[in-house]
Structures
1.
Amino acid sequence: MNEETIAKKFSRRTFMKGMGAGVVGGYAVMPTMEKAANDADDVAGEKREWLSLTVNSQKVRVQIPPQTTLAELLRNRLALTGAKVACNHGECGGCTVLVDGKAIYACHFLALDAADKDVLTIEGLLTGEEIHQLQQSFVDHDGLQCGFCTPGQIMAAYALLQKYPKPTREQVMAGMSGNLCRCAAYPKIIDSVLAMAEKNSWQ
């Protein structure tokens, strides 16, 4: 196979479409969260409190140290690693998830403050192994490059579209301004959100 044939067969577009589904979805098969939480190692003598909440439509009850952030609970106890902890200062938006429909930075949100609330993560947008239309829009419109910030971008966009189903470009820019992209893929991110908004029903 010569170089020209390889180039035609493996274009950047083909690569991104194949990679994109994995990036925007986190992973296709969610673990049993109760088991993941119960398998976590205990620290001898550490004070813990019971927490009950709903994560991606699943009831969860777990004991955690009171200082545990929502990001730590999701990633370390429930094995939901789609929310990325990058700055850990509530500035980059890589850890964005929804709590009762509102986008928050999970790295600066105590898990205990999510008691009896509904938490939605990037994994929760999946239907079996099928990604959400919003995730697909990011793939179709190249709204990702390295993909690290993409889950947070998508969750921020999801919250935005819940509030403004037909946003203007300015509303998208303002609504997504709390999510940083180190690859500077902002034009494509905005295009991905606007393209999704053009559909009559996206939920």
2.
Amino acid sequence: MGDNEPMPASTQNLSNHVRYDPPFHYFLLPIFAITVIVAIVHAVRHPGLLSGWLVLFAIAVIGLAFKARLYALKVQDRVIRLEERLRLAILLPEPLRARIPELRESQLIALRFAPDAEIPGLVERTFSENLSSDAIKKSIQSWRADYWRV
């Protein structure tokens, strides 16, 4: 591992590669959800314009949190697509290299977990069998961890 890579808590593999961001998933989301519930209870007990507005505002804050997270994930997906296209252009033989644009975003994102040695065979199988991202991940023999994803 390079000096700039985050230190993993455990070795990454198919069963644990999904990442959770504790401040977001275990603090912010519960606080936002509780706030929506409290605002709804308050609106039911004390109906009025302000109570209704607080419910809408609490829901809007949750929407904002999810949109901000989804935007960041989309940017990460775009970077992963670019990285994988460059990696595939280096690793694949010419007949497969010419077909890189045919790979779907989800396939490219799944291929990032495959080590260089497995890429040509896995890409060939992806084309011949139209493998899904889950099938690609399950086909990987030696997992190549991605600790940067959040």
3.
Amino acid sequence: MGDDLSDSARRLLEALRRNQTLSRGELAQAAGITERQASRLLTQLRERELIRREGGNRYGRWIVTDQ
């Protein structure tokens, strides 16, 4: 995993490892950040291919790839 991740991004990834079906709001709460920050971090983590979304928005889940 990237060593240059912020503390917020690390907390977000840990929350995703614990529960892959969390919504953005639930992820934000679990990581102690705002929903907007969570959205931004999710985009960054996707671009770095550290996470991916499987399934749809409503019933999908997050996959932590640990690349």
